[in-house]
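Report of the visiting student (M.T.), summer placement. My assignment was to run the structure pipeline on a short list of targets and document each run. The first record concerns Dirigent protein.
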Amino acid sequence: MHLRFYNHERILGSGPSATVVYAVQRRDSNSGAGFGNVIVYDNLLRSGVETDSPIVGRNQGMGVGSSLAENSGLTNFQLVFTAGKYTGSSLALQGLFPVAPLGTVFERAITGGTGKFRLARGYLLTTEVRATNTTLTGQLDAYITFR
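After the run finished, the structure tokens were exported:
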């Protein structure tokens, strides 16, 4: 199964409407990837790249600055579906999030799921496709198999 959706994030430092915040800020870092930093997030998942695209769910999780070089962080998160045919279901994911230029493709593991995604395994390819001073939009391509 292949699913595509878009993560709409209000980045660190974008004021009270930010969807990514520091839980622990050990080192200053624009990306949150400072070694020892912990961020939490609750981003919108939309069906398209545009900000007025229908909302299909939330990307809820945390990231930890786990690289001494401060070029990546470990993420652990859930894609929680709140609309459409997967309403009430979720996917569990984990993996590294690199600090990289727009357009870089990176992979994280699908480690499980609930509801229609029970016993899911697979991988998620993420490509950051749009950035402004306050927002970051990523294309998420989930490739899912079931045991």
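The mean pLDDT is 92. The CA atoms of residues 8 and 142 lie 16 Å apart. I thank the supervising group for their guidance throughout the placement.
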